[in-house]
Amino acid sequence: MPQSADKVLDHAELFREPEYKEMLDNKRAKFECGHPSNMVTEIADWTKSWEYREKNLAREALTVNPAKACQPLGAVFAAAGYEGTLSFVHGSQGCVAYYRSHLARHFKEPSSAVSSSMTEDAAVFGGLSNLVDGLANAYALYSPKMIAVSTTCMAEVIGDDLNSFIIKAKEKESVPEDFPVPFAHTPAFVGSHVDGYDNMQKGILSNFWKGAERTPGEGINIIPGFDGFAVGNIRELKRMLGLMGVEATILSDVSDVYDTPSDGEFRMYAGGTTIDEIKEGLNARTTISMQEYCSKKTLEFCEEVGQETASFNYPLGVKGTDEFLMKIAEVAGVEIPESLRLERGRLVDALADSQAYLHGKTYAIYGDPDFVLAMAQFVMEMGGEPKHCLATNGSKAWAKKTEELLASSPFGQGCQVWAGKDLWHLRSILATEPADMLIGNSYGKYLEKDLGIPLIRLNFPIFDRHHHHRFPIFGYQGAISVVVKILDTIFDKLDTEADISFDLTR
Amino acid sequence: MPQSADKVLDHAELFREPEYKEMLDNKRAKFECGHPSNMVTEIADWTKSWEYREKNLAREALTVNPAKACQPLGAVFAAAGYEGTLSFVHGSQGCVAYYRSHLARHFKEPSSAVSSSMTEDAAVFGGLSNLVDGLANAYALYSPKMIAVSTTCMAEVIGDDLNSFIIKAKEKESVPEDFPVPFAHTPAFVGSHVDGYDNMQKGILSNFWKGAERTPGEGINIIPGFDGFAVGNIRELKRMLGLMGVEATILSDVSDVYDTPSDGEFRMYAGGTTIDEIKEGLNARTTISMQEYCSKKTLEFCEEVGQETASFNYPLGVKGTDEFLMKIAEVAGVEIPESLRLERGRLVDALADSQAYLHGKTYAIYGDPDFVLAMAQFVMEMGGEPKHCLATNGSKAWAKKTEELLASSPFGQGCQVWAGKDLWHLRSILATEPADMLIGNSYGKYLEKDLGIPLIRLNFPIFDRHHHHRFPIFGYQGAISVVVKILDTIFDKLDTEADISFDLTR
Amino acid sequence: MSEALKNQVAAVLNEPACATNRSKDDAARKKGCTKQLTPGAAAGGCAFDGAMIALQPVTDVAHLVHAPLACWGNGYDNRGSASSGSDLYRTGFTTDLSELEIVMGQGEKKLFRAIREVIEQQSPAAVFVYSTCTTALVGDDIVPVCKAAAERFGTPVIPIDVPGYVGSKNLGNKLAGEALFKYVVGTMEPEVSTPYDINIIGDFNLSGELWQVKPLLDKLGIRILGSVAGDARYAQIAKMHRARVTMLVCSKALINMARRLEETYGIPFFEGSFYGISDTSAAIRTLCAMLVERGAPADLIDRAEALIAEEEACARAALEPFRPRVAGKRVLLYTGGHKSWSVVSALQELGMEVVGTSVRKATEEDKTRIAEIMGTEAHMFENMAPRDMYAALRAARADVLMSGGRSQFVALKARVPWVDVNQEKHEPYAGYMGMVNLLDAIDRAINNPLWADLRTPAPWDAPPAPAAPVTPLDLSAMAGTRADFEDC
Amino acid sequence: MSEALKNQVAAVLNEPACATNRSKDDAARKKGCTKQLTPGAAAGGCAFDGAMIALQPVTDVAHLVHAPLACWGNGYDNRGSASSGSDLYRTGFTTDLSELEIVMGQGEKKLFRAIREVIEQQSPAAVFVYSTCTTALVGDDIVPVCKAAAERFGTPVIPIDVPGYVGSKNLGNKLAGEALFKYVVGTMEPEVSTPYDINIIGDFNLSGELWQVKPLLDKLGIRILGSVAGDARYAQIAKMHRARVTMLVCSKALINMARRLEETYGIPFFEGSFYGISDTSAAIRTLCAMLVERGAPADLIDRAEALIAEEEACARAALEPFRPRVAGKRVLLYTGGHKSWSVVSALQELGMEVVGTSVRKATEEDKTRIAEIMGTEAHMFENMAPRDMYAALRAARADVLMSGGRSQFVALKARVPWVDVNQEKHEPYAGYMGMVNLLDAIDRAINNPLWADLRTPAPWDAPPAPAAPVTPLDLSAMAGTRADFEDC
Predict the structure, then answer these.
(1) Per-residue pLDDT for C160 more than 80?
(2) In the predicted model, what is the mean pLDDT of chain A?
(3) Which residue range(s) make up the domain with D99?
(4) Does one domain contain both B205 and B224?
(5) A370 and A319 in one domain?
(6) Is B445 in contact with A494 (Cβ distance < 8 A)?
(7) What is the mean pLDDT of chain B?
């Protein structure tokens, strides 16, 4: 073996050394049951054919590589944005590990959540004792200011009633009577993480607002939604609001939660919206959601308590940001400040400067429903075509809305909407109707490798690149950073493929 | 030909089509004087050998692909940062076109500068009439608030005395007597653009401060230096100063000059430090320069008028930013605010999160002297090795300082400093002692292509990527964006080369 | 759950081959070796997770999870098992059951159709169908569905009945082993049998670790006929009944499978480790001795000794440059059961000081062994809440934490370097040269200048108080909790 | 400067082949065709720049600039000439003279050593040595240095004496042509001569434009024996004395070279353009007619007509889908001399309306032709300061500006699309299909949704006043300046 202390190879390189190559080839020859390589190639090519595509799209029972996560993940994320809040997942013991891993890998930060760890006994007798003991233990172990309870499938299938269970737990003094324990039912077999986010947001707000006396005021609440770029985006949102002289309550502010410093202090809880802010939020005049599909039920509840509501679809780019800021200005009764006008001008200037490279590019966009809508609109603003818009967790209503968006622009002609499809569907779609770029999350890297279409990571989760979420994609300045990612991808490809056109100036 | 209206190819693709390929091959066969391709390959390989390296490094009369520009470019850049200032280059007609192009291509913004357009007559009779007429025309045509005069080689060789020429021009009423016409002698055969920046800064400050009465105060002046990321960096600098509650005068603020919006208004002049701010700057207690090699003479002049001075070498990363902020805090008598402490913690956290990928990477860094010092220090902070530090415009003093920096860290052991070398030297150096990454400017793309070493563009000029300069690399948050660029390069390479190690999580 | 599964769980929990189990009284034995779960604490993996860990490395199989999205949709391709062939195992297949399908009892029909689709569109060597909490609770019986599908489509379809709520990850490992034994082992015959055929059970080829050992076995002529499941092919499980010896690598997770192979096919097994030079040599010696007892030519012993001598010399020489850089450094271990003692041993060989090791997943036997190796029980501790781990890292003044990914950020906040030695690691550490890799990783972690910068106070902070004098630290006395802070 | 150069400049300025020049009186002729420079205005390129533009496309030559850094160090590889072979021309070679070397008169010695180094380390087909302002002013004589170096090293070393201060870019083009004629042309013989051998002078293969035409010539059997300098090799200049016909593409820049080839070697030349379908066809017709007059077989004429018919039909068909997207769009042109009329013609073929064209670099002849084509002088204008161009773009309500890079940002600020048609463009627009490319670029520019968004007021602004009615615009009456706002 070639290993030596002077040149220790990590496994990406180690197993490319000659003797490992030989060993691996032997393995393939002896244990693969030896399909000839030309047959393997033939089959692989067939899986990129229209024939395979038809078969693939006809798939109805099997889901392959879905671009969505489950409700409890969204609930844990929503709860994390409230100060001192511990997520408590009522269900089988193993599920919460996934949520913690998913969030930790994307944000590169600790992600705290606990489980009621139900076993077979609970399947027979119900989960009350697990929840009662669990709340007591969580409260004692972690000293939270709030415990937000969500469910996994098991609790739903056996029919656990969280509301009465929590009442019972307080009677048994697992937690003090006035200690906030909001809850939401979040079975994985309904909807996706965006629904879980919605349910938990509604659960938390209900816990404080239901039955409380409202003194209508002029305040504004903003619900960011489930957002992999929440750290950078919420900070940018606050900066823009500051420039406008507007104060608003961010309902679930994870920007500090998922970006704690290394300064010698361990923060199990850092930042987040305070309980006082939640309570005061009841009196707001308006609650604005930045992601419609993450907040349908929550906004309905806000209307029930007497607030005006508005929602956006992950406002990105010129038009998206314009509309959002105009709404804020309208509700708050302020003007758009010169500083933001300049920022808009700079974004438009950047688009104009680079339009020769942006116009006519084609994209496949996959991810959460709001994000896909936003990104499709933004690429059309640049003269690009969002050829394929896919949301595994997209509904029929979402599909209709997306089709209307595409129909509103000549650059949307011939583009297709794929609601409910997964990334294996997308592989067939792109193998037969390619696009220049993929926009989505880390799971798209298999498509990038397989089909040679560059991937731009702009959605949750991003596991294989670091720290992108610390910079905004919201706002005019955030939109420029999206444009830069797209342009860098275009130029990198130009340079990689160029021979006589390897130009110094682009 | 395959051209059709449905599929118009730009030239990067057009000339890869079969019949063009054939045509081009014929051209090579018939007109190349037919060196056999194996001989071409043999020679090409030889140019990557140690033997060729020795010959290349022995080169003393020929400069190939220098990583520096000339003095007048730096002067034009420095002048651009003052409100309503027009650069006037006294010299032959053609030179100013290069400066305008260079700046326009990097910043994607108009770059205004004029020339005295000397011809043969001036070579014989001197350039006085060109300067007199030129100032009159420039003043009438462009209505500037200040005209900053620099020189090219011709004016220096024929010995034009700018000071007396300007006095004469005012006597002839080319411009009003009290109209500011600072000047600097900036021959291209002395130093480089960083010296031109220094000379022009000194010329401008002298114009207002020399002979003026000083009322010593507590103010702070900051000289940013020649900086391709000036737009993002100066804004970040102002933001950090704002967080500290410190007001400072930026002497040459190009952040708005080179980032004008597209909003229907043409701004020949936008932003920049005002004349009143310059005048008031005389009373500052301290002038701090962010780039030592861009400000040696200027800081000497500041000391002459009674100010304290300090200089840094393009402060980047943890230590660089710490030192700079501590200096500001000391001079201004303020504490470092909690918000900046958190930002530092986040930067350290980002480095810690990614240290498994950053530690042990090797770099070749080329560019301006201050930048190379800063980048070398920062990569060593990450556990990387700055194997080759090259500044074509680096002096012996710079080389010594860089060697001391390298000696201060175990990660600098075995790293080399290349003062005065060009990018063709660097090609031989890297062909024989490779590094994992190149850090520099767009001219490095030939090395990237030739040697397969990925390039990260962090220095002026960046001609073949767009809008990078709109985001800071200064400050703690700016340092995170540098880290992200490095990490993305590392991960992109890992993914491109990976087979069994094509991992979802990094 | 079904009576069949209930009985199987009870049987698995009463593992005759487990020495610990044999020493229990009947009541304790019935309870099994699972730790008591603590509601309200951070929970770790479940039985489904354990089964998936054990089986996903079978690379040419389509792993189809019969569940709502969560169980697999959130987590596909999140392990670092490496493959020399098919990538099929990295694709996330699920029936993604919806509420309507659950309420209406349509799960089994959907499963059958999903199996058809995966076979038609992916041509796997086999399909492993995993049940989960939801499908078990609503009564979907995957066994007859798999049987019908296998008959209909001509591809093996293996039921893995592992709803998460039945128990721990360790239990899931065992249930997976039972399923393989019941449905797969013995269903194919190797083209040739040799006296050098072995099974390796419990290695998952994380970051290619199996491949750091295989060249050694290749040099000795030893063939890995059966594998559960590192870089495995379905055929390598189907044929494992023809091996001569079984080596059990993960000390307890799949012992039931090893025992069954011994009982049913007469294949003796031993437990060994490839972590650390001494353990690697010991494992090779034992393996060769057993092979010779089972009919391999006697010269295998001498060839093995020669190989061991050569490799040990080479490895120790390669390690020497690192020793001065890591000797004396203090390591805190927070890993799973078997790693607790095998890694301690390996690190001590390198002159490092292990200031603490978690025993939260260790068996009594593991704990005894650790006490022997470390010479004291003072360094053993149970689970820790993040803030307690943080305090321990500082109190123990560890220079490096070796653990899995979810402790990473606690370590970093405590400004302590961290090395990933768990299932998601990116570098292989097995075999003789695996130690070189591990040392390099530790060296790079500890000697990254970042830590000095990080620990140096920011220039605006006052200098820290002088360091307290070193006193022996009894980690076992630290306030902690038996709550299950599952890390992997 | 040297007397020799002074005399050469005077001779070049008195170009017998230039009709404009012949119509001048003696005083005007002596002044030459250069525009008067305006001190204090933005200045354009110099003679050195012009020479470099003409010669840099010789791809296998090392272009060595004898100067301080500025002349080449700031700007190497900034043109879009494309090469089918060597990339040597893209490397920036300079003597980078320092102050000490200038003061001490060491420039010539350094130049000699630099020539040696470039030959030893780069093995160029030849070295072109350019003088500049500084080296000319201090009296460095590059001619004997080049001669000595050529003798010493056995490689052609060609002096190009073009200090910037001697005049304009156009003058630099001509001086470059003189140098080639004096030192290079006729120094090599082609292996074979054919009746189809031609020279093309004045095409620089920007973005590969020459290659859009060459296949047409190839189909007719016409060989580009000599090239100045698109995709040229040194040999293609050395052998150009053996061509039968010269086509001059850039209408005035290198006419001196074409004339000398005619006077000395009897090679007739004509001026043509490959911009636009009609011009391309006219150029091919003229070329073939002249070749036949010079001895090519007469069937060339018929073959050319057949090719033209086919290509024109194909091109017009390809253009039709674009016509509805661009017809009626208003174009403002701000380009160099010859492009003024050839591009106007091309665009009108497409149904576009040219609302203005700069004539700042046009000759009187160019202006006459433009007036003919456009039917009025109202659309011609001289140079414009940026803010005036900005106003013109808005007043003329241009839909697109076609210009070089330095006007780009003015257009964008005026919210007018911009298409790069100058030397730095990235797309080729020559020949029949070049029009398709140009249309595509215009279409993409004009129809990018960005412009609608950009022109739509921000939602917080009041709606704009209704647009003023369209009235004929006399751009020539606009306040402007004769100051040289050099754009390329």
Answers:
(1) yes
(2) 92
(3) 3-183
(4) no
(5) no
(6) no
(7) 92
D356 and D248 in one domain? Answer: no
User: Is A445 in Cβ contact with B465 (below 8 Å)?
Assistant: no
| Domain shared by C177 and C206, yes or no | no
**CB–CB of D92 and B66 under 8 A?**
yes
Say whether both C157 and C16 belong to one domain.
yes
- φ, ψ (nearest 5 deg) of residue D402: -115, 120
Tell me the per-residue pLDDT of D295-340, one tens digit each, with 9 for 90 and over. 999 999 999 999 999 999 998 888 888 888 888 888 888 876 555 5
Neighboring chain B residues of D324 at a CB cutoff of 8 Å: none
**Closest alpha carbon within chain D to B16:** D84
CA dist., res. D105 & res. D135, Å (int): 9
Which CATH number covers residue D385? 3.40.50.1980
Strands B437-440 and B146-151: unpaired
Catalytic positions of A, written as ranges: 153, 157
A468 → closest Cβ in B260, B484, B506:
B484
- Residues A359, A427: one domain? yes
- Which run of H or of E encompasses C51? helix C47-55
**Domain encompassing residue B205:** 71-209
Q: What are phi and psi of A89, to 5 degrees?
A: -100, 115
- CB contact under 8 Å between A409 and D420, yes or no, is no
Task: Assess if residue B57 is contained within a domain.
Answer: no
In a domain, A424, yes or no: yes
> Are residues B98 and B189 located together in one domain of the fold?
yes
D214/B23 touch (CB, cutoff 8 Å), yes or no: yes
Judgement on whether residues D334 and D306 belong to the same structural domain of the protein? no
Verify whether the Cβ–Cβ distance B329 to C417 is below 8 Å: no
Q: Is C270 left (phi over 0), alpha (psi -120 to 50) or beta?
A: beta
Which A positions 247-266 lie with beta carbon below 8 A of chain B? 259-263
Within 8 A of D40 by CB-CB distance, chain B residues are 88, 114-116, 133-139, 141
Q: For residue D295, how many other CB atoms are within 10 A of its CB?
A: 10
N residues, chain B: 506
Asked if the C-beta of B353 comes within 8 angstroms of chain C's C-beta atoms, the answer is: yes
C440/A8 touch (CB, cutoff 8 Å), yes or no? yes
Same domain assignment for residues C294 and C336: no
Residues D277 and D297 in one domain: yes
Q: Are residues D356 and D267 in the same domain?
A: no
How many domains is chain A partitioned into structurally?
3
- Structurally, chain C folds into a number of domains equal to 3
How far apart are the two ends of chain D, measured CA to CA in Å? 26
Q: Quick check: is B21 in a domain?
A: no
Q: Which residues of A touch C90 (CB under 8 A)?
A: 446
Give the amino acid at A192.
S
Does the beta carbon of B381 lie under 8 angstroms from any beta carbon of chain C? yes
In this structure, are B105 and B153 located in the same domain?
yes
Model confidence at C437, pLDDT cuts 50, 70, 90, reads: confident
Do B137 and B225 reside in the same domain of the chain? Answer: no
Q: How far apart are CA C233 and CA C226, in angstroms?
A: 9
Q: Provide, as residue numbers in chain D, all residues whose Cβ is less than 8 Å from the Cβ of A411.
A: 449
A abuts C (3+ Cβ pairs < 8 Å): yes
Region A412-428: what's the mean pLDDT? 95
Kindly write down the DSSP assignment for every residue of B321-389, as one continuous string. Answer: HHHHHHHHHHHHT-PPPHHHHHHHHHHHHHHHHTHHHHTT-EEEEESSHHHHHHHHHHHHHTT-EEEEE
Decide if A265 is inside a domain.
yes
Inter-chain CB pairs, B–C, below 8 Å: 74
Looking at D183, D211, D238, which one is the last position of a domain?
A: D183
User: In chain D, which residues have their Cβ closer than 8 Å to the Cβ of A505?
Assistant: 78, 80, 424
Interface residue A246 vs chain C (CB under 8 A): no
**Looking at the complex, does the CB of residue B145 fall below 8 Å from at least one CB of chain A?**
no
Q: Are residues C156 and C12 in the same domain?
A: yes
- CA nearest to A231, candidates C211, C356, C395, B480: B480
Touching D (3+ Cβ pairs <8 A), the chains are: A, B
What pLDDT digit, counting tens, does each position of D175-206 carry? 999 999 999 999 999 999 999 999 999 888 88
